[in-house]
């Protein structure tokens, strides 16, 4: 996953790469799920677990797999932390009825475009 990275300054890159490689193995993913309940990147591995032996998260393997199939990756942008907050605000406003869905999505579009414009060119782009 994106939580595993190689420090470019390490003097033990071969060993570090071995560790990263280990995390791609089904057996390691399964062990991490069994001990920490971290959902494996290969959600189909959840079919192998008995909820009575593994823990409560395994009870929801069907729902987790469906969520994984329906997931949409977040956009690649430097301003995602700010944008995710803006999205939550506008969507929440629509759900609460403070704004119509059309108004909230229009405002969201404007705010997202503005946040991208604010950082455009800062890195020499």
Plain-language structure description:
With 125 residues, this protein is mainly α. The chain has helices at 13-22, 26-36, 51-54, 61-70, 80-96, 101-119. Helix 5 packs antiparallel against helix 6. The two termini are 28 Å apart. The mean pLDDT is 88.
**How far is it from the N-terminal to the C-terminal residue, by CA?**
28 Å
Fraction in helix: 55-70%
Rounded mean pLDDT is 88
Low-confidence blocks of residues: none
- Major sheet: none
Q: Give me the number of helical elements.
A: 6
Number of strands: 0
Our count of domains comes out at 2
Globally, the shape reads flat
* Beta fraction: under 5%
Task: Report Rg.
Answer: 20 Å
- Helices and strands: which structural class? mainly alpha
Order of helices and strands: HHHHHH
Biased composition (Basic and acidic residues): 113-125
Region (Disordered): 97-125
Protein name: Family 1 extracellular solute-binding protein
Organism: Natronorubrum bangense JCM 10635
